[in-house]
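Reviewer 2 asked us to include a model.

Predict the structure of this chain.
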Amino acid sequence: MFQPKIPTMPQPSGLVTPPAVVQPTTITPGTPAPAPAAAPEPSRPVVQLTPGTAVALVGAGTAVVLVVGTALVSLLLAVAVTSASVAVCAVVLRSLIASNAKRH
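Predicted model (structure tokens):
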């Protein structure tokens, strides 16, 4: 019951074919292939940054920073409150054990 069970490899099913052998080919020098014509670069739309768009971007960035900062501060505060409560519990337990030991 407590001995580990080692899994066994299953037997291959079906026919196993050997890997295909690739035959080398000879390269004969000839006329060089013509160079491909340079494709025109696709025109990409240019982003126009208007004052209204800039204000919206700054506002969105500020909102993201405030939300992330609030979440991180909340997590830090939760850790601090938890550690303080654990410390108080430890002090109370130590005091109870010490007072119980003095009685006996």
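The radius of gyration is 37 Å. The helical segments are 51-103. We have added this to the supplementary material.
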